[in-house]
Every structure is written in C-alpha cells, then in structure tokens.
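Board notes (copied after class):
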Amino acid sequence: SWVAYYLTPNEEYKDKGGRLSFKEDPDLKDMSINQAPVESKTFSETMNRGHNCPSRAMSWSKDVQKYTYYMSNVAPQDGNFNQHSWEMLEENVFKWITTKNLSVYIITGVIFSDRRRPVRLDDNIGKPNYFFKVMCDGVNKESVGFYGENNNGGPQTGILRTVSEVSEKLGLNLIDNKCNIDNINKTHWWD
C-alpha cells in the first residue's frame, strides 16, 4: 500500500532517468505472495503501472533503480493522472530537493475507499481510489502532504495539505508530530 524512501540532493543531482522493464518481486515470489502479473491486460495507456517510489528518484544508481520496477512498487494508476498531475507533483519534489539543497523523507502509496471491496480490474487487481505522498524535511521540521483521485486527471493533486489530513484520509498515522504534521509552512514548499 505504501513505500518510504529518503532522497538527498546529491542523489538527485546524479539523476540519469531512463526506463527499465517491469518484473515480479523475487522476494514476494519466494514467499508465494501473489503479485499483479507484469503483462496483465489491466495495464495499458488507460491504466498505467504507477510507481509508488518513482523510478527517476532512484535513477542515481541503476542497481537501486531496478527495485522501482518490481511489481511490489506498482499500483494501477489512471494514465492521464499518472502522466500529468502526478508527474507534475513528482517533478516539483525533485526541483524542491535540488533548489533548496535539502534532503527529504517521503512516503508514497495508495488509498482504497473500501479496502475490503475495491473496484476490481483484469486479473482481480484492485484499483486504488487515491494516490498520496507525504514529505518531511527533518532538518527544518516541516511537512506537507498530497493526494489525488485516481481518475482522469486528479485535479486536486497539487493542493498542499497537512500530513494529518492525508493520514486521516488513509486511516493510518504516517509521520510523528516532530515534523509539524498539523501545519503547512507554504513558503517552505512551493506554490
């Protein structure tokens, strides 16, 4: 449902980009845990393999980047949402890290409105209703959160939210209050 990662300016300055091939997560396969099939009919131009931890974020090392292409890091993401609103949010994260020259803790994942009865796609894959991202600048004790509806565009994705608001939507505490989760210092982040 979510992944946590830490990004530094030094890593993001080494961004090499590039795409790799999607693969099953071998650890989950060894534990006999079902994964979405790599070649499922679910994934197309309409419904993409949405990365939780973005491939670009880990492109500073091809050895690390390959893990972002495991199916354990993927959820069905509306193609328009993935390639527009969500991509713009991820781009803002990269720019913020390199412009501010600060490291950031990030948690990214999905939210189901009803986890027991999600909308099912081909191969019985559950379609999340939302994607979320929360960030904590541990040096300045500032945090911000985002979520976007997994539909044709997710127009509310760019709205800066408190981490508390995203946590409430998810029904899970994401970051402790040491990172000022109940407030947003808008001048610290971006417009």
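Comment from the instructor: The longest strand covers residues 104-111. The chain has five helices and eight strands.
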